[in-house]
Amino acid sequence: MRWMSLSGVLAGAIALSLLGGSALAGTPAPKQQDVAAARAVTAAITRFDQTAVRREGAMTAAAKAEVAQVQAGCAGGIPASVVNGTSHQQAVAFDLLFEGVVDLSLDVLHPVHHAGLSLARAFHHAQFTKASFTRGIHSIAKREHALLTLPASDLCTDVKAAAANGFTADPPGTTASLEGFSGVLLTSAKGIPDVLKKIRAYLVTKADRAALKRLQRIDSRYQGFSEKLGSTYGGKLATVLTAAPPPAGGFPTNPPPRPSSTQTALRRARPRQPAPARPARRTRSPRPRPPVGEGSSR
User: Fold this and answer.
1) Is the pLDDT score of 254 beyond 70?
2) 251 and 78 in contact (C-beta within 8 Å)?
3) 27 lies in a domain?
4) Considering the domain boundaries, does residue 90 fall inside one?
5) CA pair distance 79, 246, nearest whole angstrom
6) What is the pTM of this model?
7) What's the angle, vertex CA 79, arms to CA 76 and CA 85, rounded to 5?
8) Distance CA 76, CA 233 (A)
9) Which of 15, 25, 211, 290 is spaced 20 to 30 A from 238 at the CA atom?
10) What is the tens place of the pLDDT at every residue in 148-194?
11) How many structural domains are present in the chain?
């Protein structure tokens, strides 16, 4: 999955990237189970990309509709005094904008929802001879499914709730949205590009390489479309939602005195690392006392 900056869409549809070039000479022939699994994964990605390209118009319409809904319901809901306000207020404003682009991402995914679920199912059923590789593929399937089934929040309701408390705290809906998204974002699964680097070694026949090149071409088009869509409508959403542009240096302009919901959600989603073991404390052995009369003033 490809993640985009806040100025665009944080989670685009499922943009995939492939590496070209030929396999190394002298590589041992792949096992038939790996060949079959690699072909199934390649076919599933191709079907998704083809569907996404056909539905570019619907994805664009979904992005336009999200921006229009915010325009009608809470345009300028984050006032200039908050965008340039205290670090508390700026942290809340940042979280609301983050929530907005998450909602935009989910809306853009809706036209390819069924195709995305099919892709996740294909990954879930892939079985390679290397157990760790299979687990990695299944982890991606789980992550894709989680993203596609995230519930959208009610952004304008949350913006109005934040305004009611003076933008001093995130509304519960904002916190729930960001925690749900961060759980998808920070899973331990590796990305699809990493998987495809490994799968490529199993696609050695002329027909398989031709299928890979076709996928590469259509995927390149989809990636370009997805990035442009996110950049365009993510920026429009931020412009509609805020009554003034964020400070030139970004915000919060000063470190907030408490973590925003975004920071808290990301921290909770990270797998906890075991604390390093403390070195054993060295104890001094008692120094022997000289007998009375030797080395003593008494």
Assistant:
1) no
2) no
3) no
4) yes
5) 11
6) 0.72
7) 155
8) 16
9) 15
10) 998 989 999 999 999 999 999 999 999 999 988 887 765 555 666 67
11) 1
